[in-house]
């Protein structure tokens, strides 16, 4: 099949150039001006921008076990709507894929049911909470792209050390949710003025930073590729910065919500603001952006965590932790950071596409160039709209960004050479 995209602004080598793009049997075969060819379909894209497919190394698709919250189908459709062509799914599902057989089954289901590429993590321990380690070499052979107990910090240093020693031999990343449970203090939001004002129990920020400090030292000794999930504290940024300077093989991600929201925005008992790590102080938001800009933080990942209305229908205290993000991340960050001049579009694409692909050694080349498989999205960056739950493909609409005005609307996503989403 031949598809001709006409008059699009194409993001190539950091520049926007108006070009026509010819896709033949899923591959980009021509990028020129004024192409006039006999094709199966012509897509007029004047005033629209073709951007590389986005890559998210941190999503929760809830499948199997909690398909009332999300499925591979709905999660991947939501991802395509958000401009993503590859995501990496966390293993906190039921049953936990803790054997090669279970992991292979998940990977096969991801490939069969997903409209985009859905890569799969293996857990670090058998049920993500105990100390028994999985067979890391066998899980790598089964197709794991990394190892993570996301949602649970590994509580004992010995377990983490043993895991790092074994995972280092695979060459795959260990993606860590850093959180000392004893220091969480049963909190439901960040300990501070907002928690005091709302009468909520606060989680100590040292729950994150103390376990991070422990893990960075263990990573220094073992040489493992240690990846820090959803960094939320200024102190964490500083610890990672120092570790990188010391030669530790550490990378880090930050979520859109930790960049854009802080706990002072929680004005009432609104469970849409309940997430883990919790929203921190405004000064932490500033430090997180600085960490991206100076290379301490390597990428942006959504931690897409859908829930049902019932999960989020209770009070802040009793509702579930988590926020969706896969459909809103690019429009929000483009509007709040690029349009305001805080970052460039090139930087955003680097953090949301190129860096995660390179760092996690994913077999993707989302650059828009001749010979590549078509993995990109066509955006209307001039669009002005409100985030609307009725437009979401995810089963979850648990986000405080509903009603927020944003620029950037995705009109079409190509993945693996095929149209995965069309508005």
Question: Can you put this structure into words, describing what you see?
Answer:
It comes from Fructilactobacillus sanfranciscensis. Its EC number is 3.5.2.3. Zn(2+) 2 binds at residues 150, 177, 230. The protein has 423 residues and is α/β, with parallel strands linked by helices. It folds into two domains: 2-50 and 370-394 and 403-422, Urease, subunit C, domain 1; 53-360, Metal-dependent hydrolases (TIM Barrel), CATH 3.20.20. It contains twelve helices and 18 strands. The protein has helices spanning 72-81, 100-113, 136-142, 157-170, 181-184, 193-198, 206-222, 234-245, 256-260, 282-293, 329-338, 345-359, and strands at 2-12, 15-24, 27-32, 41-44, 49-52, 54-59, 84-89, 117-120, 147-148, 174-176, 189-190, 202-203, 226-228, 250-254, 299-300, 376-386, 405-415, 418-422. The strands form four sheets. Strands 1, 2, 3, 4, 5, 16, 17 and 18 form an eight-stranded mixed beta sheet that branches. α6 (193-198) links the parallel β11 and β12 (202-203). The longest helix is centred in the middle third of the chain and has 17 residues, at 206-222. The chain is globular, with a radius of gyration of 21 Å.
């Amino acid at each position: 099949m031949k598809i001709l995209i006409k008059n699009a602004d194409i993001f190539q080598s950091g520049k926007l150039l108006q070009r026509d793009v010819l896709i033949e049997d899923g591959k980009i075969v021509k990028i020129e001006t004024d192409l006039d060819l006999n094709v199966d379909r012509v897509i007029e894209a004047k005033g629209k921008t073709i951007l590389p497919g986005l890559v998210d190394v941190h999503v929760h698709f809830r499948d199997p076990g909690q398909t009332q919250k999300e499925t591979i189908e709905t999660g991947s459709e939501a991802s395509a709507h958000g401009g993503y062509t590859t995501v990496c799914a966390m293993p906190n599902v039921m049953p936990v894929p803790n054997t090669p057989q279970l992991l292979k089954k998940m990977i096969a289901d991801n490939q069969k049911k997903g409209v985009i590429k859905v890569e799969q993590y293996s857990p670090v321990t058998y049920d993500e909470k105990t100390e028994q380690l999985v067979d890391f070499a066998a899980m790598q052979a089964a197709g794991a792209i990394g190892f993570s107990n996301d949602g649970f910090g590994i509580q004992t240093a010995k377990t983490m050390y043993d895991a790092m020693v074994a995972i280092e031999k695979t060459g795959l990343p260990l993606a860590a949710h850093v959180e000392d449970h004893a220091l969480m203090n049963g909190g439901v939001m960040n300990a501070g003025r907002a928690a005091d004002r709302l009468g909520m129990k606060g989680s100590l920020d040292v729950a994150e930073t103390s376990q991070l400090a422990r893990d960075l030292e263990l990573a220094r000794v073992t040489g493992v590729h240690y990846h820090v999930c959803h960094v939320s504290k200024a102190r964490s940024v500083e610890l990672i910065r120092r570790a990188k300077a010391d030669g530790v093989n550490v990378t880090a991600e930050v979520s859109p919500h930790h960049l854009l929201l802080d706990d002072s925005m929680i004005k009432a008992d609104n469970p849409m603001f309940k997430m883990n790590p919790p929203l921190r102080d405004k000064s932490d938001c500033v430090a997180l952006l600085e960490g991206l800009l100076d290379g301490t933080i390597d990428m942006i990942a959504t931690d897409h965590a859908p829930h049902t209305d019932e999960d989020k229908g209770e009070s802040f205290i009793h509702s579930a932790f988590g926020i969706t993000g896969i459909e809103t991340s690019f429009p929000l960050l483009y509007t709040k950071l690029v349009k305001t001049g805080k970052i460039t579009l090139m930087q955003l694409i680097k953090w949301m596409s190129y860096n995660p692909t390179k760092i996690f050694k994913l077999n993707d080349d989302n650059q828009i160039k001749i010979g590549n498989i078509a993995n990109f999205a066509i955006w209307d960056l001039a669009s002005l709209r409100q985030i609307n739950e009725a437009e979401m493909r995810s089963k979850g609409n648990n986000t405080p960004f509903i009603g927020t005005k944003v620029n950037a609307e995705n009109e079409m996503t190509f993945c693996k050479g095929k149209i995965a989403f069309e508005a």
